[in-house]
Amino acid sequence: MRLRKILDSSRLLQAIVSFFALLISITPVYADECKVMKVTGSMGWVPVLMKDDNGDIYGLGHDVMSNISSQLSLPFQFVEQPWKRALLSLQQGKVDIIIGIYWTKERANKYYYSSPFLQNEARVFVLKGKEFKFEILSDLVGKAGDIPLGGSFGEEFDQFAKKNLSLHSVGKKTEHIVRLQKGRSQFFISDYFDTTSTLKTMKLLDSIVPLTKPVSTTQVYFAMSRNSPCSSRAAEVFNAIEWLRNDGTLEQLRQRYLNLNAP
């Protein structure tokens, strides 16, 4: 009994040490260098990040970032760049934050993650009249499909696709649509809300349709670099998101943008 108490005390001590080690890992080592947060993200991702006709950035993610900036009295600067370069910049500490990113085990080893601020649904899109049965991932085997360059649709899909599917990575969302129309692909996978918004703008809602079953339902997060000068403020940034959630601001912003961009 005495030995068990000693072992239990030892495990508790190890847990306490591990907890404080985590806190120390995000202590303000570079705090005096973090004057402006450099942020990036996938521009044109409805409703996360968009540009108006004047080139001004708006969207749910941008509004959340603006609220974080105000709470921390710390300005931010948006750095626009292609998605794969954005991920590399975050890993290298050239930018501090990505607005709008999915969680994967590999990424979680490279970045700090917030709690989710949006839930996203990925769907299979096909030409109307060429729908096919899609109930499980294996229904996609043998078909030519497109996915966004550098995109992820959750661990289960990513692992299955790597081993079993023939997928072509495409940089621009309009290229998915063109390739489908020209018969170069049989389907493409993309965010449901973002894609239907694009199809509505292009007046293609009647010719390109989503299959009923989602490929995945995925949470969307903020991620912070472990290597940037502002990494020491990760806890503050993520706590600011929780304040927005708890006082109802986050849900108000979500509803505003979902209603604004509804198909």
TrEMBL record:
Endpoints of the signal sequence: none
Pfam families per record: SBP_bac_3
Record protein name field: Solute-binding protein family 3/N-terminal domain-containing protein
SUPFAM superfamilies, per the entry: Periplasmic binding protein-like II
Gene3D superfamilies xrefs: Periplasmic binding protein-like II
Family classification: Belongs to the bacterial solute-binding protein 3 family.
Residues forming coiled coils: none
Origin organism lineage: Bacteria, Pseudomonadati, Pseudomonadota, Gammaproteobacteria, Vibrionales
Highest taxon of the lineage: Bacteria
Presence of keyword Signal: yes
Domain Solute-binding protein family 3/N-terminal as annotated: residue spans: 36-261
Origin species: Vibrio marisflavi CECT 7928
Alphabetical keyword list: Signal
